[in-house]
Amino acid sequence: MTPGTGAPGSGAQGTGAPDVAASLSLSVVAAVTVLTIALAAGSAGAGFSGSTATATTLGTGTFPCFHEPAPAGSLLAWYFAEKQGDIVQDSSGHGADGRFVGDASRVDGSCAANPWSTYPGAGTDDYAVTDRPTTGPQVFSLEVWFRSADPAGGRVFGFTSDTAPASTYRDRHLYIDAGGGLRFGVQGTGNLFNFTVGGGDVSDGEWHHAVATFESRSMTLYVDGQREERRTDAVAARQYDGHWRTGRGTLVGWPESGNFGFAGDIDSATVYDRVLGAETVAARFAVGR
């Protein structure tokens, strides 16, 4: 996925338009079809079939972009394609809306330039977090498109007990360690041992696709469609209610952790209620978000 390309996000939705505008929009629909084919063929791993707005909406002054339907089984689906404001809308249908905190913000994009979220500094409290708490799942997958050029680490996406910058509990997360490698971590029950699996260097400033899966005695990390590491000794994840967040999060006690704050960009973030298989992960990487 190259910067400035990829799947177009949703734009503003207009109100009704005169009949003549609706008629003119039919020609726009034809152009949209051609645009869909061009994007799927020419973008770097980011084409997909999505839905469009109605002819009435197309007849307004603002041209709405495509948006991808939330994947089946998703508990949270953030695409950072809102028109404005600090609200992050959840597309999964589970009401997992959130908000930007600190200097975390949205980078606006058109139909030719995908919108994404940006987190400016590793030493700052910049993140997006869900408004309502939920119970941490025992079977799940995390999926995220991200990029960072900071080799000093940072928390990319995960679960925390609080909405504040520092949380009492934090796990079910993806973070970049102090050496620039990506890690997936889950806190176990009993002695609360921190289980992690790791991958290669992802601090090269390029877009990367990561998927982390967990169920009893199986936790796996995939990077750019390939399995990096798997372990089978984690029986269960610590049970607590908390919030999903992208960006800054406490990493005290986690192996080879560096900065708590994430310096980089996140294009999309998804939580699933099931374990994604290797073929599904490879397919998701191939088509983009």
Considering the chains and any ligands shown, give keywords for the structure:
289 residues, mainly beta, Jelly Rolls, 2 domains, nine-stranded antiparallel sheet, eight-stranded antiparallel sheet, 3 helices, 17 strands, 13% helix, globular, disordered N terminus
- From the N-terminal CA to the C-terminal CA, the straight-line distance is 9 Å
At CATH level 3, the topology of the largest domain is Jelly Rolls
The helix-and-strand class reads mainly beta
Average pLDDT over all residues: 79
Report the uncertain regions.
1-64
Total domain units = 2
> What's the architecture of the largest domain in CATH terms?
Sandwich
- Rg value: 19 Å
Shape: globular
Topology, number of strands: 17
In DSSP terms (H or I, runs of 4 or more residues), the helix count works out at 3
Main pleated sheet: 9 strands, antiparallel
CATH class of the largest domain, anyone? Mainly Beta
Kindly estimate the percentage of residues that lie in beta strands according to DSSP. Answer: 25-35%
Would you give an account of this structure?
The protein has 289 residues and is mainly beta. It has 2 domains: 1-67, no CATH class; 74-287, Jelly Rolls (Sandwich). The chain has 3 helices and 17 strands. The chain has helices spanning 19-42, 55-58, 278-287, and strands at residues 74-78, 87-88, 98-101, 105-107, 116-119, 127-130, 134-135, 140-147, 154-160, 170-176, 181-187, 194-201, 208-215, 218-223, 226-231, 241-247, 264-272. Strands 2, 3, 6, 7, 9, 10, 11, 12 and 16 form a 9-stranded antiparallel beta sheet that branches. The model is unreliable at 1-64 (pLDDT under 50).
